[in-house]
Amino acid sequence: MPDREEGLLASRYSKLDHLRQSGIDPYPPRFVRTCDNAAATAMFEAVESGDPPESATTSVSLGGRIMSMRVMGRAAFLDLRDGSGTIQALLRQNVLGEAYELLKDLDLGDHLGVSGPVIRTRTGQITIEAHQLTITSKGMRPLPEKFHGLRDVETRYRQRYLDLIANPEVMPVFAMRSRIIERIRAFFQTQGFLEVDTPILVPVAGGAHARPFITHHNTLDQQLYLRIATELYLKRLIIGGFDRVFEIGRVFRNEGIDQDHNPEFTLLESYQVYADYNDVMAMVESLVSTVALEVLGTNQIQYGDHLIDFTPPWKRLDFRQELKDRSGIDIDAYTDYASLKQRAAELGLDIEPKDSRGKVIDKLFSTFVEPHLVQPTFMLDYPEVMSPLAKAKPGTPGYVERFEGFAAGMEIANSYTELNDPQVQRDRFEDQESLRLLLGDDETDRLDDDFLLALEYGMPPTGGLGIGIDRLVMLLTGQTSIRDVVLFPQMRTIQSGQKDDSE
Q1: CATH number at residue 46
Q2: 0.70 cut: is pTM over it?
Q3: Given pLDDT bands bounded at 50, 70 and 90, which one contains residue 265?
């Protein structure tokens, strides 16, 4: 295989040299394209139908990558693909004259500009007849074989550009991702939310239970973290006087990689005054169903073997009761931490010494309840030990006003009625810090004195929301791995000649 690849590379370099010796720049600075392939096709069909647009023309200039070549002596057919699709190009020696000789120096993967009229061939295929050729970029490496490109998952993720070239069906997923985010942004803007930006490099990585990435700022000589959430800065803006704010941005969590986790992911967070988690629940139902209708035209999504219906209202379940029904464990009956750990271990859970009570409950929930939440469901009223930033639920000691939204067995939304009592918030943070010292758990929430100072100036009743954009895109596009909706998922760097067996 290396010898064959070396031969293909040598051939391309030889053709590159021949182009330059012939006075042709294989990498020209510009090419004027009059439209893309899809527009050229649509315009030709409109002309054929007798209803051409005013801007219709019989001649166009198109550019694209050569995906196939069929040379038949004095004529050749090429398939040119751009971002809008593929169109056939017809090259005739009697039309192009000496320019037809350029064909000898072309390979699959090269970029070519073609100018000429759009016609329909005798077989009925819409085609651009080349009257002028311009090589716009000489590809120096051969394209991956089609079936290899489809099967080699590691190559697809490591070299996404090859995935996009070899598998054109991948591109619409990412185009849809862009439209989903666009519609989410529009939804919040029409609801009166202001889009803002908050810091990525932060002195305290707070707002979530997650291990942060650590860096160092040389000028400040200070250890900083990549943010794990945007919550505490967005709440500062609520304290400052904004009524409704939201942010869509990257957050970073130094955690494992699996089908629905990537160390960096896109998170939406929103905060609105004089709202509680019930108001936010209604907003989430409306948001997801609206985006699904606007992007897909339906609220019913086929996801694997399940037809998931996002039409409101979604099911609402009580956290404690559902966990009891599914696992047989009433967490309130296990008042001491050791007995809960022991019972969880007896049920086969992998319980580690550093696991806090909240972590054990979370593992129980993830194991026994989460996989059953296929249809859109809100899980309500979480234990306080799992939710240090949420407001206590009146009349239910030990529980808070928090919901998580699930679909297809995945969490897609998390919301609180936000805790706004600065002393209670300080006590909660200090409890988290004590757990970190006691158990060595670096995923506990962190005490942020600057945020507590801001909270002492007064924050009105507020409803907060977080939605994992990548997981929502997975659901709406039918993808079962987060790597299929993130253009460049995180991968272990491998050295030349080293095989990666860690993913």
Answers
A1: 2.40.50.140
A2: yes
A3: very high
